[in-house]
Design brief:
Strand 3 and strand 4 form a beta hairpin. The protein is α+β, with helices and mostly antiparallel strands. Helices cover about 25% and strands about 30% of the residues. It has one domain.
Amino acid sequence: MSSTLDAVRDLVTSGNARISEHGYDELSDDDILVRDLLNGINSATVVEDYPTFPKGAAVLVLQFDGNNRPVHVVWGIPKGFTSPAVLVTAYRPDPAKWNEHFTERRQ
C-alpha cells in the first residue's frame, strides 16, 4: 500500500482536492472527466509511488473512467503541507508502453 494514496483518498473523499492547470489541460486533451477520477479514487491502484518527490509526495495510479477505460493519474500533496490532494496530470496510457494491465512499464 501507499501512504500517499491513503492520504490522497482521505482528502478527495472529504472534498479537499484541486486540479492543477496542467491537469485540466491533460484531462481536456484526453476527454477525461474530473468527476470520474474523483468518484473513482477509492478503487485506484498504485502503479508507482514517489513519497520523497522534491515538490511533495506523489503517486501514479491506475483509475478507470465512466466507460471503464484506463486512466493514469498522478496525485500529489504539496511539499510542507498535508492538503490539498492535487491532480497533477492524467492521461490514457499507451498500450505499447505498458503491460496489458497498465501497471508495469514495458522494457
